[in-house]
Design a protein that fits this description.
This protein is mostly helical. About 70% of the residues lie in helices and about 0% in strands. The chain has one domain.
Length: about 90
């Protein structure tokens, strides 16, 4: 999960990049989004300082599970200024 550590030293810059890479790999291998997301959450939980990333992923999953309007969900997830918001919006 440290592929982005050179540019982004903060865990909330590093962990979303790793989570997205893991999800992209699993999706390319044929997993569905929920499975890929669940596997990424397990992996992120194993890292230190994961609260912001997990919170963003949980928020995205909650909005999707509730059937939120996509535009409203994106607005609720943030403005895409930080990595965990960008990850949640992508999910």
């Amino acid at each position: 999960m440290r592929a982005d550590a050179v540019e982004h030293g903060h865990p909330s810059g590093i962990l979303p990049a790793g989570a997205l890479a893991l999800m992209a790999q699993r999706l390319a291998e044929g997993a569905d989004l929920r499975t890929a997301l669940a596997e990424a959450v397990v992996r992120v939980r194993a890292e230190a300082d994961q609260d912001e990333t997990l919170g963003a992923l949980d928020h995205a999953r909650s909005l999707a599970d509730a059937g939120a309007d996509p535009r409203a969900a994106i607005a609720a997830l943030g403005e895409d200024w930080v990595a965990e918001e960008a990850l949640a919006i992508a999910v």
